[in-house]
Amino acid sequence: MGRTVPSFRPALEHEIESWKDFKRALRPEDQKIFDKLMNFARIHADAGSLSARPMLSEILFISFAIEQEKRIESLEKRVQELEKK
After folding, report:
1. What is the model's pLDDT at position 83?
2. How many angstroms separate the CA atoms of 33 and 54, rounded?
């Protein structure tokens, strides 16, 4: 039997590639941030492959949110530590 769903990682790369015109329209400093966000999706590719979501953009956005939340929590912890001093 053939596969009905493409392998996740190539599909993710295709989704990221589909955003290339948007990226090209960004300022150079924003293009770096864009690339960073796309790498977040790559970091979470294993979880994405198990999620069986029909829209890959959902996986992109939740990956961004997870990584940003981790950063927020880290910064909040640093602020609390500095306030204690």
Report:
1. 95
2. 26
Query: Are 65 and 40 a contacting pair, CB within 8 Å?
Result: no
DSSP secondary structure of 6-47: --HHHHHHHHHHTTHHHHHHS-HHHHHHHHHHHHHHHHTHHH
Rounded mean pLDDT, 44-52? 88
**pLDDT level of residue 40 (50, 70, 90 thresholds):** very high
Q: How far apart are CA 33 and CA 73, in angstroms?
A: 19
For the chain, what percentages of helix, strand and coil (3-state, to nearest 5) are there? 80, 0, 20
CB atoms within 10 A of CB 74: 10
Cβ neighbours around 79 below 10 Å, total: 10
CA geometry: angle 13, 1, 10, nearest 5 deg: 5
What's the rounded Cα separation, in Å, for the pair 5 and 53? 11
Q: Which helix (H) or strand (E) holds 13?
A: helix 8-17
